[in-house]
Design goal:
Structural class: mainly alpha
Shape: globular
Helix content: 55-70%
Length: 224
């Protein structure tokens, strides 16, 4: 599955677990994946202060290009990860997030990772996104082979494993006989640069989630 990007592989695991790409607690991880993916492809740099600096190299994946343009339109030399996640995932308008996720969904359709189904609901027809099981199984086997069996870990597999571990998906796809090997590998990658970027991003996401929850509670209380 070398032609499939890490974000798409993470997304298919997310769909398998949550049945949707519009999961409010997990959508920010898709954005984080895109940011780190673009870092690996040389489209942007992430500073020690967790600020994003765009380069002149344009992303090839459509969904990354959509996010790249959103960051570019902020018209700042450096943009903090917190501001990017706040703008895309936690603003009152969901336009940016919907555009990015819809673009990602279209890529996944082209790569035959998912199929769309229309079902009748109480208020009309509803689009349902289904995982192609054979493709999902290929991703799982790749994670197990590359992460648990191979001696040398690539940046891509470290990113995917870090994302899956951060959202508690990783242990769901590892059987009990592989748990000890998994824990050893997680210790091995925890200090890598990519794993640290995901960890920092997770901290920002947790902070933003807590802030949004507080705002929602305050708004609900004031309206009573």
């Amino acid at each position: 599955m070398n032609n499939i990007n890490i974000t798409e592989k993470y997304a298919i695991c997310m769909l398998k677990e949550k049945k949707t790409l519009h999961e409010k607690e997990l959508s920010p991880y898709l954005i984080v994946s895109m940011i780190v993916e673009m870092m690996l492809d040389g489209n942007l740099e992430i500073t020690d202060k967790n600020k994003v600096i765009l380069t002149d190299k344009i992303p090839t994946a459509d969904y990354n290009l959509k996010l790249y343009d959103i960051i570019k339109n902020m018209k700042k030399d450096e943009v903090s990860l917190r501001i990017i996640l706040s703008t895309v995932c936690y603003s009152f308008s969901t336009k940016n997030l919907k555009e990015i996720i819809n673009t990602l969904k279209n890529n996944m359709l082209q790569h035959e990772l998912i199929v769309l189904e229309t079902k009748k609901g109480l208020i009309g027809e509803k689009e349902v996104v289904n995982v192609v099981e054979s493709k999902f199984n290929e991703v799982i086997e790749e994670v197990k082979t590359e992460f648990l069996k191979n001696g040398v870990l690539t940046d891509d597999i470290i990113l995917l494993a870090s994302l899956l571990n951060s959202t508690r998906f990783l242990k769901n796809i590892i059987n009990k006989y592989e748990k000890e090997e998994l824990n050893n590998k997680l210790k091995e990658i925890k200090d890598t640069d990519i794993a640290q970027k995901v960890k920092v991003a997770q901290s920002v996401i947790n902070t933003m989630t807590a802030l949004v929850t507080t705002l929602m509670i305050n708004a609900s209380t004031s309206s009573m």
